[in-house]
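Usage

Read records sequentially. Each one opens with the input sequence:
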Amino acid sequence: MTKPLVLILARLGMVNVAAQNVGQIKKLDGDVRLNRNQAERPLAVGEWLQQADTIMTGTTGSVGITFIDNSRFSASPNTTLDLQSFQL
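and closes with the structure output:
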């Protein structure tokens, strides 16, 4: 069973955030992938996330993210997280 698409909506004031870091991978287990600019690759602990990134966990994957406002998010297996925008 797949999880529903999760949208994180945000905005960084008046600053152009096209390539700004909005969060960091703090915990990762199993298959967790990043889709950025139409290119998909595995993620690693410590990597920074940007607005418009998509994070996908596989059947064995889970991830913990801390955003730049110190909010935290965790995702279990078979989840897709679409970081469409970020707001402080």
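Summary fields computed downstream for this record:
- Residues 56 and 80 are 5 Å apart (CA to CA).
- The radius of gyration is 12 Å.
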